[in-house]
Amino acid sequence: MDIKKSQQDLDSVSNDTKSNSRRDFFRKTAALSVTALAGTSLMASEEKGESVILEPQEWGTKWGDPVTKNLYGMPSKYEHNVTRRYTKLLASGNYRASIAVTPIQESMGIITPNGLFFSRSHGGIAHIDPNEHRLMITGLVEKPLVLTMKQLKRYPSVTRTHFIECPANGGQEWRGPQYNSVQFAKGFMSCAEWTGVYIKDILADLGVKPEARWMLAEGGDSSKMGRTIPMEKVLDDAMIVWGQNGEALRPEQGYPIRLLVPGWEGNLCVKWLRRLDFASEPWYCKEETSKYTVLKPTGKAIEHFYANEVNSTVTSPSPEIDWSDLEDGDIVEIEGLAWSGMGTITGVDISFDGGNTYKEAKLKGLVLPKCWTRWSYMHTYKKGEELLLTSRAMDDAGYIQPTIDQETSVVGVEAVYHRNAVETWKVEKDGKVTHVEVRSQLERKPNGELYVGGKA
Amino acid sequence: MRFTLNKKSIVSISVAAALSLGFSACMESATPSKSAAPTKASIDGGVSYPVVNGKTGPYYVNTQFNGVKINNGRVPTADEYKEWDSDIMPDGTGLPEGEGTAEEGSDIYDEKCVMCHGDFGSGGAGYPSLAKGNAEELQATLTNQRIKPDEDGPVRVFGSYWPQASTLWWYIKDAMPHPLTDSLTDDEVYSLVAFILNANEMSIDGEEVDDEYVLNREKFLKIKMPNRDGFEPKIDGPNGPENVRKYFANPHNFGAQKVKPAERCMTNCQEPTAKVVYIQNGGINDFHPPLSAKRDLPVEKEASNFDAKKAYADNCAMCHDSGAAPAPGDKAGWAAIIAQGMETVYKKGIEGTDAGMPPKGGSSLSDSNFKSVVDYIVNQSK
To answer: In chain A, what residues touch B268 (CB-CB under 8 Å)?
Structure first.
């Protein structure tokens, strides 16, 4: 430790008449330890120490719960604020066609616990009796099939870690930032280890006819959610899953079974799955015509926009958990997530000036295809500094996140879905964090095309 | 057992090319790449990871399974197949016979739909709009972009935006009315579709869909959606999947950027005109529960704090205040119901009725709280 700096800290602390916090205690003792007791293994202090150490706690002296209590374990009561959240803006009047989003500001590693996995439904969360549920496979197959859940699980199982992202993640912010919250700005996604069966393994059993070009997946809930999926994906990595992070799917995730279409729009991962149908022509389901299409400035809309493109965000600091408690010179880890439905993350860059200049950040832990990837960058905090933290990810398909100007000048600001331009979080002078965007004013050419103002 | 699965029109043109691409993904590749994680271009513009040397990407695969027949399950019966085979395709596959008028549709709409979708399908309370006026005129708004404040946006309702009418028929039949789906007859669905065509001021074969227009299967299949050609890539026909692949092979089509890692921008990456834009007017901050990262004990909720009036507004008012069901204070409307005795009123409320009352009004209230809401209504209506 830098002795001079510590001495300054000590001076500034003793000048602060309000200081009486635990933090100040450590600051004083830390300073004393180097000035008075360097070379010994214990800290000297003007005070006896913290009462949480000096005095016994109730939990340290009395019986805890018997093992017979909470046979299915629950988080500590103290973690009650780590929870999914919802807003009325994104709900039908009765929260049946609605979404509750994941607190990614609190996420650790690359796995979302099942109770925090974002929850989206179109007719409420169905509670299906697995004994009364069947999967029916029909259409252009040699042998149509009905399976009980027990029979389905007899196929050889496959376990894969993938994110699922609602393509409307960030979809309220095409025209400007709206949420001062990373949970709402980027939390329409989660990541889990899924267990199920490759659909191609079932089809090997049934025989799919060569005319089959599309598969319909349909839910058994009241909304009968349906989506059309091309055969190529069906025969690549699409799965029917029943396991989520080592246990059964939660009802919110489609118990007993859902489709998993790795990397593609979350909406395609049909929950409460009951029917797969194969045909030579596509279906035009509601959620691939009226919604989940991307309207461009040309007036044409992209349909069948499958993959969630390469994306990333800073998750720490965040408006929820900011840097207002940091002191000058504190070393702090900037952390975030990167993900791509088109492949595997190959790198993440971090900018401190809103995406004008970048430095390479470090990837951390496992780097898996179509999966959350954690990245970080060590930063020495200067009290009073203003920073515009922008992250930018790349994937092995060759894509890099666009600037907002690059993305909006092509797809406009009415797309709703598939927004993957870089995201910026401003660290204010007081360490608070604000969601901002760095962008230009767009203008329109007579033919309708958009361009960055001042750049004809 | 023989099945009539010909409904999904069989196109004779071979799609072997597309299929072989897909199938290669589940077989040992003949040409293992040197790379540990081999990739190839996919239909979505990304890469996929074929199984090479017993691995797909970083995952080991049990290749013992290749070629093994599991022979699980059984073939469905014809009745089972028919019961679940409810999809309607653009060419009319799956569309049953039936008929109805916009006028009949209007009556059904007023009874079962208006509480959410508003007068003439205008929308509201978080539920989608079904019509905003003349479909042809509104289709022209699709080039609108709100790049500056106070500009009009595009109107994306059934008439102006949807590419296929089959979607509407199918969706109403399968998934409406929202609290009690799959409850309309085929004639009722034709009537509601006629009503929605009418609200969108649409015509079929040059004939305006007015109140008396009798919509049936034959006429339905002649509907031309104004925005039929408003979508890209073209997914229909034998070339559909290849059109999709070509489309997503061009990053410019969907606003993406490709770059070699060594050539990516590291300085001066923003336009000189780019500036910091802040959240306006507080933005959206209606968050439940409110944002907090504190580690403390949750506040215990007291059961006695239950607010029946608020629960009524949240769960019941959408029907009971709209005339679809008797309102609190409507003494005439409630007299016959109350006369059945309160235990019956509670029971019917909790279990729902054929008259359209969903169980507990579609709420997730506990039985005792639901009874408090019933009391709240009945006490005003005696």
So the answer is: 356-357
